Amino acid sequence: MKALLVNPWIEDFAAYDFWLKPLGLLYVASYLDKLGFEVYLVDLMNRHDIDLKRFVNVPRDKFYGTGKFPFVEVKKPDVLKFIPRKYKRYGAPKEFFYYKLKDIGKVDIIFVTSTLTYWYPGYWDTISFLKSYYGNNVPIVFGGFYVRNIPSHARKTGVHIFPSNDLNRLPKFLEQVTGKEIKSKNIDWFMLPPMYELYNNLGYLVFLTTLGCPYKCSYCIAHRIWDGIKFKPPEVVVFEIEKYVETFNVKDIVFFDDAILVNSKKHFKVILKKLLEKGYSKYRFHLPNGIHARLIDEEIAELMKELNFKTIKLGYETSGELQLKTGGKVVDKDLVRAARIFRKKGFTEREVSAYIMVNIPGQSVEDVKNAINFCKTEGIGFSINEFTPIIGTDDWINLVNEGKLTGLEDPLLLNNTVLPFWWKFGMSENVVQYLKMYARKVKEGENYD
Ligand code: B12
Ligand code: SF4
């Protein structure tokens, strides 16, 4: 059977290619390949596709393979009419999509992925486009985080939804969808490599070495979507990296893990050592997903320095009592320790920075300012993230129980950039802007109040 996999458009007020690759979909591709499907991919968000520049002006890379997406302005969804910003569709233009579909030809089944819930208009438009191109005869299967998180919402697309992480449920599911017999095999999908060979060109490579997280932060859904933590054996990780680095001429290697430092003696340290032995310090490594400051030790930091890590994000989130109330994954002294170890090993604030969240329920303006000043004093950088109440997290459940959310909000209203414009139980847009400005000034070494 011929299967088309699609990474859909993103629609939002802003989006940036901070090493976005549809890893889940690439695992689905490997899994289908193992089941005997003939697999094709159209990634509407791959800025590095060699055909893309024939259809649109592609903004140049900014740093380490990241960069701005091409975009067109699109009609703002009615529910967002009150937001005084332009709404855009990011990714490849429709002409590129036509070209790719024509090139691939007839297919028997289509698979569309999803990530952030509040990007759903982009997913829906992609699905409408596919429906108008293929008619109603080709079944569309829709999966990924958005579908898993709010299946009832995703169901409104009228396509077949797969609201699960367990790919071993796919064969049965596909039998129902297609009416054809599909031989089930017991495959551990996470041990397969994400199927990068479906790309003609890439600007960077992204990998996962673990799945899940043993912590349980109140604002995070990771521990609810994966059962505990699962490790990919270091030799398999290194094999995958080697395989694809040789195929694609990229310099940047990125890890997406939620908890890459857990059990590091048997896991991350082993991976780092193996990569060093193979001479991989000529590449650049990145950890854009916050790592655990408490789990840093001198050996890890030294190995990371030797291996040329350029981006290390520490999950700090906030100062003050919320550190413990949200789950206690990090307290100030963990951050100080980690920051000092990194500095001792020669890292600077250019490479090491902390994520600080703004607008966590119960967080004060002082909590954010103290967190910013704290990072500055410790000589590490920081970036501001705006809180989004993710459906199904402890924070979201509490907000619904306290009557601060109805639980029925359109996911678009929960977008972190939209929330401060209407949600009266958190920080207002002015306060958020003030804190962002405060952060900028502190970074530049100026006084600001
Ligand atoms: C890595 C990661 C990132 C990366 C990039 C992610 C990306 N490619 O989009 C970085 C660090 C850049 C990032 C950034 C952000 N992220 Co993020 N991120 C993740 C993370 C940790 C992993 C995603 C992933 O690759 N998972 C691994 C793959 C294997 O899982 P998967 O995609 O779900 O696929 C599985 C299934 O869904 C299924 N599947 C997938 N597709 C399909 C398709 C079909 C047809 C089928 C059948 C099955 C299927 O198969 C896979 C195997 O089971 C998730 C949390 C998590 N643990 O999942 C958060 C998460 C998705 N991010 C989140 C958020 C909030 C953000 C930010 C907005 C944070 C911020 N405030 O700035 C930014 C926005 C990014 C941007 N550019 O604007 C939230 C989403 C919230 C929401 N409401 O949707 C999550 C859930 C984390 C959380 N806080 O709880 N993120
Ligand atoms: S925020 Fe990080 S540490 Fe906390 S549960 Fe999510 S992934 Fe784990």
From TrEMBL:
The keyword Electron transport does not apply. It comes from the Bacteria. SMART domains: Elp3 (SM00729). Its cofactor is [4Fe-4S] cluster. Signal peptide: none annotated. The keyword Lipid metabolism does not apply. Residues 198-439 form the Radical SAM core domain. Keywords: Iron, Iron-sulfur, Metal-binding, S-adenosyl-L-methionine. This is Radical SAM protein. It comes from Thermosipho affectus.
